[in-house]
Specification:
The complex is a heterodimer of chains A (260) and B (262). Chain A is built from 11 helices and no strands. Chain A has 260 residues and is mainly α. The chains are: A mainly alpha (260), B alpha/beta (262).
Amino acid sequence: MSSMIKPRTWERFFWPLIAAALLLALWHYSVVWTATKVFPSPMSVEKGIVELFHKHVLWADIEDSLRRVAIGFGLAVVIGVPLGLSLGWYPSANQVVNPVIQIVRPISPIAWIPVAIIFFGVGDRAAIFLVFLGSFFPILVACVSGVSSVPPIFRSAGRNFGLSTPQLLARVVFPAALPQILIGARLALGIAWLVVVAGEMIAVDSGLGYLVIDSRNSGKRYDLVVAAMLMIGVIGLTLDFCFRRLEKIKSVRWGFRDAS
Amino acid sequence: MSQTQEVVPGIKSAPKLQAEHLGVVYDRDGQSMPVLDDINLQVSDGEFICLVGPSGCGKSTLLNAMAGFLSPASGSVAIDGETVTGPDPRRILVFQERGVFPWLTVEGNIGFGLSKLPRAEREQRIAHYVKTVRLEGFENSYPSDLSGGMKQRLQVARALAVNPDILFLDEPFGALDSITRVIMRGELLRIWQAERRTILFVTHDIDEAVQLADRVVVLSSRPARIQDVLTIDIAHPRNISSPRYLELRDELLKQIGLAYEI
């Protein structure tokens, strides 16, 4: 925080609440004053959320979305981290594959949707594939740059204690690069959550993304559309919050401090 | 191992470490730059050697070559008669700073080179060296919570824990403030006298060299040659205002080409 004055505890909660309340009020009165019949007011969205919970579809959709993210993101970690460590360790190998990676990386996972459907059909696996694509590259790139920025002094020390190359990678290079890998993984998780919603709007018939598009298509229920959008926001925030807890683990905390 | 070597240094038994016609060349932009030229040095077991010389002369290069991190362009380094071909846990290099692993606790750092030992022995070894470098109470602390001096003691402990014959120290106290530096010298001498290892110590600090070493090796400017070897014939603990101490210090200052008046 740039200000020297520390906010008091109650202020830290009070002002954000005021801001949120003002935004809700603005939303509410905009709906009232424009007399729109299409866009829902906050109250009808709240009723929409309650309705979704009562119909029990919400839990199933949340579960489907989270499962796809967990599998796709998990695969990206399991494949991306060892591959990234190897490419970072062998720069000559990295030079060979880097052009291909740099061309594939900027392609939005959304552009892959038709290809995903050809490969996997409409279903879970297409969505998982899209999530994987979206989270794989940030993790890979973070690993490669994480390894190359490991101070040479750590490698020398590791070799001095008689470590073989695999041991050096596991016991020195990986932990030394871990803070940077976590930053990449956190970015990847955020992208995964964006991608799963987009993917579910087209490539499958369940999940929060499907809930959004289905609520619109079957009867223009915009109260449910916005309700689902809010749920997507809250869950995304929760995922990021949980992931940030990892940065507090003591063996990586050193990498997230300004000093040392 | 002779017990008298510490007081009467430079006794010539079979040398622990021997550098013969050692030369190191750096390759920079396709041009070869000689850094070390025809270095000949014999170090006895248990001896404390300080390497001094003008800044950038190649002191660290010499240390790295002897520790096996650089391969010589000519000549060779032998330890116990065996030619050095690479780094080895029997001889550990201690860096100036940032050498400890920040993701491991004090215990984890000291135990880093001990993963092959059975658990009980490892824990015993860790406890011993925590005590040796006086880090009791900080066993579970991370390096970011330690002061600069404590981090360097931790690095020394991590090195000693694998029971090396030789410690190579590359300006280990160079980044510390002057008071901590003096305390650390005392600590290192105490550890050296208790553990009896051969130590090669690079420093740019003349006083440090005269306070610590059995012999001080003076290197010339680049490409470095051995200009002189000075035997510090004062018993420990050394009185740093004694005439002999001042005489040796002045001699060293003169060797490096510094006036002793500012």
